[in-house]
Structure formats: structure tokens, C-alpha cells
Model the fold of this input.
Amino acid sequence: MSGTGKQPVLVVLQLTGGNDFMNTVVPYTNPNYYDSRKTLVVKEGEALPINDELAFHPNTAPLKDLFDRGKVAVVQGIGYPNSSRSHFRAMDIWHTCEPERIANEGWLGKAIRELDPDKQNVLTGVNVGRGLPRAMATPGVPVTSVADLDNVGLMSGIADPAQRDEALSIFRRMYSPAIGNGPVMDYLAQTGSDVLVGADRLKEAPARYSSTVQYPDNPIAKNLRDVSRIHLAGLGTRIFYTAQGGYDTHANQGPTHPRLLGELSSALTAFFQDLQEHDAAEDVVMLVFTEFGRRMKDNGSGTDHGSGGGAFIIGERVKGGLYAEYPPLEPSQWLNGEDLRHTIDFRGVYGTLLEQWLGLDATAIVGGAYEQIHPFAT
Done:
């Protein structure tokens, strides 16, 4: 729980496409890493050491600074058994906690239902971005989505109908292939306009906001600034969701991945500086996740879909450090002869956040009891 007496807030940031964890938290002294990565390798002399075995990518210096200050928990080897290599199915599993079947309730939607069972606040859950993430989509649970806080590009009947129709079309295209158009339309019908309201209240946020923090000029920084503005407006949001795209680096990973990590790291620093300036950092914890890691070997230009990825839990109340175990790098331990093994189930990490931070019973939300970590300072 938050130590300030205020309600704890969870921000979930999705790295869409499958972040290459091995080139983010680098096993910079392991010969198997250099033997596997002939082209896409972080050189030992350029990495930012955590210890004698692991280091951050050089473009994540701002994130490394947060780590050195004890504010970042690195969750190593996060995943689940029989990891899917399909973007859509993998993300669906992460969003619903259902590896064996297609589900129609997102884990964060179920959490929002527990936090606000009487639907008193349509802003209990807010997505900053286009469409609506599957993790928040749960029949009967209102969630507000905002694409551009300054221009009120909202999924709302109050906003421009053309924008609303486009957002709903994106939602249908995203989820109909997995669960069918019928369930998608049923969801929209059951939840009705409740999902699409909140525009008038969100308009209050920019007017209430003032900060000396200069955010970088990139999309994820803009989204995190909007998260900060909504949070600081005191509108009662308990769960935020946003995403940074571009991590499907089959080709051109050399220039693309470092740029994305740099943008992410600088955006995270600005966001938490902003919260600190407004004496609001104690109330917020962030989960940064991706749908899977990449394979051990590069393909000459990029890396292909794999498993055994990583996640970050960030915040003032976080007890920073390394959690779970880094996937084994010996070739005899690779899955399918080319993948990293997972060492902790992602549902246990969700359970950690739900129970230890939000104060909820995680069992029904994540579909069972899974090993948790303990990343929060008491």
C-alpha cells in the first residue's frame, strides 16, 4: 500500500512487439552471449554494469540511474510454460492470464471491477493511447481511453463521432480475430457508453497541470506526461495503461532497439521526476512488460520471436534490485534449441502487484496462486 495515506496507483506500460531482454539487461561477461550474437551484441566496454555478470544497455543510462537509486526491480526470465511466438496470441495471454483458452476478461479490467465494484468512477481505469487494451476490456467495467489529452481525441460519444468510430473500429480489428466479432460486439453492447465516457472530466486535467519538468519529444514521453497530468488532477484513477510500439525487431534492430530504449529511459526519468516535483511519487508504481523475449541467436539484421523475457517494476516504494533468475545461457538449457527459458511466471508478478500494492486478492484475477516476488520496501 501507498505510505502517504492516498490510494495506490498502478501504471502499466507495454513494450509492444517483443523487447529483446538479452540486449536490454545484458549478460556482458558471458561467452555464450557473444557466441550467439554475431551481429547484434552490446560490447562489454560499452555496457553499464550492474554486477560482474549483468549490465544495462548503454542507451538506458537514465533507467540505470533509477536502478542505482534503488527504484527499479528488474524481473528476470518472466514468462509462462509453452510460450507462444504469435504476437497476437502471446499478448492475449498476457492480457487475460489464460494460456490454455480464449478469455473475454482482461486482468486489469477484473482488478478495476474489484477496486470500483459500484462503477462510481468511469476514470478508475484510463488507457492513454489508441483503442482499448485487451487487459482492460471486461464486460460491464467502464474504462476511459484518451489518445491525445490536449485535443481530447477520446473514445467517447462526447468527442468527434468520426474519431469515436475509428477507435471502435481499431478495437474490433484487434480482438475479433481471437475471440470473434460476436463477443467483441457483445462486450461493447454490455459495457455500452460507460466505456466511452469521461471526456468532460479528463478535459480538467491539462488546466490543473503545471510543471518545470521537460519531457522528451517522443510518443511514449507524451503518453507518460498525459498519465502524469491525469493523475495529478486528482480524478481518482487507480490503473493507467499505455504502450510504446516498435519492438518487433526482426530487421534493422541495430539502430531501432537502442533508439527505443533511449526514448523509454528518458521518458521514465521525466515521468518520475514530474511525480516527485508534485509530491506524488510515493503513490505510483509502474510495471513495464513485453509479450516475449527474442531468440538467443540473431539473424544477421535482427532477432526473432522467443521467450524468457524481462520486466521492470519502478517506483519510490520499490525495493530495487534483481528478482527471479536470469535465464540460463548454456546451449544445453535453451528451449527448442534457441530460446531462453522463463524462470518466473508472469502471473506471479501480476499477483505481486495486485496483492502487495493494490491490496486485492489476486487468485481469481490471474487464475490461480503463483510464486510472488517481494519488491516493495516496508
Remarks:
- The chain has one domain: 9-366.
